[in-house]
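Quick one, tokens below. Sequence please?
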């Protein structure tokens, strides 16, 4: 299990690294290419800087939403795939946190131009990350409920 958790953390750092460590070189470099392509076309690094420095208006204006909406799904799937290839994810419905995280992360990005928290717009990065975290937590809860119901 330690090996699988290590792959999760490498995939969080950069999608594709977990696959490379698992010996899945073609898949790993494919994830790196997809991440790079999506990152560049979405203006992701610039949007991250604007978001983390509090310039949410500029973050929203610089975001290419047609590309950034793809990012949470690629990111979460790369993490899940590396974890599964490393021997994790054997319990039933263990994919639910990753799927739910991707879904809610995409919703967070989608609604970031109009969603306000205490009168402020958190921008696509912070609302996307919030959605991903909430989605992962919800996925774990649903997984636990389904697993306990089936037992």
């Amino acid at each position: 299990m330690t090996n699988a958790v290590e792959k999760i953390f490498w995939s969080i750092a950069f999608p594709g690294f977990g696959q490379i460590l698992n010996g899945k070189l073609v898949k790993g470099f494919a994830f790196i290419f997809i991440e790079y392509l999506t990152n560049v076309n979405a203006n992701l690094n610039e949007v991250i800087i604007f978001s983390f420095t509090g310039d949410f208006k500029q973050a929203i204006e610089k975001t290419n939403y047609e590309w950034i909406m793809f990012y949470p799904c690629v990111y979460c799937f790369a993490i899940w795939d590396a974890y599964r290839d490393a021997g994790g994810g054997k319990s039933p419905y263990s994919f639910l946190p990753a799927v739910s995280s991707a879904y809610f992360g995409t919703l967070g990005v989608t609604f970031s131009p109009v969603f306000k928290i205490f009168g402020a717009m958190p921008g696509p990065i912070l609302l996307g990350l919030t959605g991903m975290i909430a989605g992962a937590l919800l996925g774990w809860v649903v997984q636990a409920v389904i697993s306990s119901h089936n037992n």
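The radius of gyration is 16 Å. The chain has one domain: 2-150.
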